[in-house]
């Protein structure tokens, strides 16, 4: 049996109930092999080193979106990010414990309010999601209308929005977006991608309601096309594309309002 | 009238000019530099000054001013304004918009005056 390789990891610790004023870094030595994820590291620390460590997780397979953290300053899903990728460049198979510089620094998602250790306040993200009405709006299909047709859709109609429907609401794109960092009122990448997803859905009739939100300065127009949101997205949603297609839609919607003379919320197109 | 302009703002206009200017910047400005900065002085492209002058004095000269000078100026103005915003200079105010787009308008006006008096 060979000794497991180990490396050092810095983890951001913060517990206001314990009276912490600021987050501090805790350095721990952890074993790893080729299959050790960042989430495995956190679980090792909680079980073997310090049971007071708080972090979120559930599925361990990049589905639930709850394990987002900053790893060496980049937003990552803990369960989809592996220690081997951080130590490999220092020489395969070497024992990194010999050099106690941390291979990984794990911090809570940037741009959100830290609540404790790696747990952030996700409400700041969820209010933006809710604001764009991310559900099918179809007045004809309310329960009180028994004659409503079922929602059938062709594969081509599905393909129009499918990519934007893959979002798992992990919030990595918000931690990546410098505009959200500057202005937390910015609706943000995932919410705009979701609005775009429903606007492109053939079953939906709620576009004019969503455009009221997207047309504002805090809607699509806060984006300066940095594009980092799409780089960090673990599901290939490409929110930056949704935001910039949203700018075209928003420009059209505002032009139509200017010519038709009715406010955006009143238009029934 | 009130309903017509409720909630509207100028950002789509600046963004439209920025997008159009981006295409011009990427495609036309390098070709103009190539033709008039390199190929013409080297004699590869052979046009006489008087031919060029009469071409510039026609409506094509105005189109040239728009796509090679004015739109790229608005593109640059938009980029600079957002760059300043990122550095929290003039954050949230309209001063930077005034200065940036104002400069692009001045450049445009000078271009038109130059064409008019050519
Ligand atoms: S768009 Fe991508 S990065 Fe953003 S919340 Fe959805 S899955 Fe996460
Ligand atoms: S634990 Fe569910 S996405 Fe990582």
UniProtKB/TrEMBL annotation, chain A:
Report the EC number(s), separated by commas if there are several.
1.3.5.1
Question: Where in this chain does the record put each 4Fe-4S ferredoxin-type domain?
Answer: 157-187
Q: What class of enzyme is it?
A: oxidoreductase
Question: Which Gene3D superfamilies does the annotation name?
Answer: 3.10.20.30, Alpha-helical ferredoxin (1.10.1060.10)
Keywords assigned by UniProt, alphabetized: 2Fe-2S, 3Fe-4S, 4Fe-4S, Iron, Iron-sulfur, Metal-binding, Oxidoreductase, Tricarboxylic acid cycle, Ubiquinone
List where the protein spans the membrane: none
Domain of life, source organism: Bacteria
Return one GO MF term: metal ion binding
- Among the Pfam families in the record, one is Fer4_8
The answer, when asked if Coiled coil is one of the entry's keywords, is no
Q: GO annotations under biological process?
A: respiratory electron transport chain; tricarboxylic acid cycle
* Cofactor(s) annotated in UniProt: [2Fe-2S] cluster; [4Fe-4S] cluster; [3Fe-4S] cluster
Q: Which NCBIfam families match?
A: dhsB, PRK05950.1, PRK12385.1
The entry assigns this protein to a family as follows: Belongs to the succinate dehydrogenase/fumarate reductase iron-sulfur protein family.
Which PANTHER family does the UniProt record give?
A: SUCCINATE DEHYDROGENASE [UBIQUINONE] IRON-SULFUR SUBUNIT, MITOCHONDRIAL, SUCCINATE DEHYDROGENASE IRON-SULFUR PROTEIN
**What protein does this entry describe?**
succinate dehydrogenase
From TrEMBL, chain B:
A Gene Ontology biological process noted in the UniProt record is: fumarate metabolic process
One annotated Gene Ontology cellular component of this protein: membrane
Q: Which residues cross the membrane?
A: 12-39, 59-77, 89-116
Cite the InterPro entries for this sequence. Fumarate_red_D, SQR/QFR_C/D
Keywords, A to Z, come to: Cell membrane, Membrane, Transmembrane, Transmembrane helix
Signal peptide extent: none
Kinase as a keyword?
no
**Which NCBIfam families does the record associate with it?**
PRK05470.1-1
Name of protein: Fumarate reductase subunit D
